[in-house]
Amino acid sequence: MYDLTNNQLITTKWLPGDISDTKGLVFVETPIPGLNYQPVMPGGGGNRKISFTIPLIYKTPLVGNVPTLKLMDTLRNRSSISILGKRGFQFDSNPKVLYYWGVGSAPLVYWVAKADASHKQGWVNAFGQPQYSEIDIELILDEQDPLYKAEELYRAVMGLAGMAQGVFG
Q1: Can you give the pTM of this predicted structure?
Q2: Phi, psi (rounded to 5 degrees) for 14
Q3: Domains by residue range for the chain, with CATH
Q4: Fewer CB within 10 Å, N or C, the chain?
């Protein structure tokens, strides 16, 4: 995952477990007096959301997993200080990331909707620093980003390949 807002590569030696990939399909049921059913009208599509949990297990004696936790923290905190020279401002948007791993898509740009940490009880070093944490990530696809056009092309090509695979595979 690449943090486009803060220009940082966010990676760990640990891979996410299960990845949830959802997209709401919106329908409108219109009640009509006296009719025995409600006609259904397509109302469009919802946003595609990717969510997963990344375990962070680092048993270093001094800092535990704090360096990686602080890297993940950049996904949810706008900072006025940056080592890389970029500062966050009051009216800056939430971070965007480039992500593709494990979801069968081309690399796409997502808004970061959630980056919450939970720290495992009993996994704290002698200095009180966490050694085992889990980061819950939720990303919302930015369908207005130019890279989304590449995904639409990729979907069309792979859809044809999926048809062939279903018939001949």
Answers
A1: 0.83
A2: -100, 135
A3: 2-168 (2.40.30.200)
A4: C
